[in-house]
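Holo model, beta-D-fucopyranose. Inputs:
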Amino acid sequence: MTDLSFPPGFLWGAATASYQVEGGVAEGGRGPSIWDTFAAVPGKVLDGTSGEVACDHYHRYASDVGMLADLGLGAYRFSVAWPRVMPDGRTTSAAGLGFYDRLVDELLRRDVVPVLTLYHWDLPQALEDAGGWPSRDTAFRFAEYAAVVHKALGDRVNQWTTINEPFCAAFLGYGSGVHAPGVQDHDTALVAAHHLLLGHGLAVRALAGQAGHEFSLALNFAPAVPDGSSPAHLEAARKFDGIHNRFFLDPVLGRGYPADVLADVSHHGGRFAASVRDGDTDVIAAAIDWLGVNYYAPARVTPLADPLARSNCPLPGLRGLDVLPAPGPLTAFGWEQAPATLTSLLSWVSGRSGGLPLVVAENGASFVDEVTDGRVFDAARVNYFLEHLRAVHDAIRAGVDVRGYFAWSLLDNFEWAMGYSQRFGLVHVDFETQARTVKESGRFLGRVAKANALPD
Ligand code: FCB
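Output:
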């Protein structure tokens, strides 16, 4: 590895998620997901939109894969829609599997490595009606679904990510309620989190054993940066880091749920504690081959005078601290741009996990983009990628085993509660016409990928 190069075999890719790009919500017998239901409720999605059409990737996947391959990216991280494969959450649909069959074949035809995520938040509505993630049964249904997809695609797909960001699925879906299914109850959110992690472990156990297959999950990290160095500041950072990061990371690494976080959330009642049964933490600790690190921004935290005061950040157990407005430069979403934090995050996760291989499974930024004469000169996003790739490179040079980098996202898409207001794509999508325009940032990332090195 020269000064600017990445390790041989480094995986360069872009990511998407089924509900955010596919559309075709009623095609091939797909059943409704919690996001179809949630988006239909007025006021839940900023611009009143849904993933009904999204990027029409369901029909345009072949040309989308072609664009990714032409850019020079060697991997595609996509998710499978559970309600496509199992419209009622339990019964397998051959037509639903057929879509992923075609997608995988197209990726392989273009020499693109498929990196498959089994769950990126679109739970079949039928399973939500039966209790959703707060129900233990859902974890077992997930493992069954995982086995069905694995049986169908395991002859061609080697990279298996179980769950994307259980933090969001649990705490935004069942705690703050800003994501589907929109439940607002921290006690329920903690139970959902446990069942998501349990589902991850059960799926890895069910799928493991085939030579060449690698298993992972993707966690979203928000490193806590205290705005001072007093003991109260450090305590605020400990609390935020605990519930946001360690609560998910530690059990996956076999360290169990962190004791300090359990103490922080204990006032939420006993349902979480009761949901963790004997043996569960062993299941969650199922060996993985790499961990997906999704990184966007840190959280600046400050202590409140009253340690029991409610936080402005609606997470379980979070008291006595506020999250401060992010300092600039900001993305269009209002997220801080803090590339150096990615280096320290990768080093921290690597150290805590005893050197587990890491993949940056999501990193990217929304900006206001304009198509001018058929081009999108998104200089701010080019700079964002450059700085974050330098940060990844710094971590690698410091000895962290980082194996890949996936930009969020290949396409501008349905950004959950923000609808179509946030553009994250390497490729601009005109949602009226579905016209695609490769952005400058897409070309930039493709050049870096082809060189397997930072530009000098
Ligand atoms: C992540 C999600 C992804 C996308 C980005 C911006 O938390 O995994 O689907 O919405 O944020």
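The chain has a mean pLDDT of 98. The two ends are 14 Å apart (CA to CA).
Archived with the compound record.
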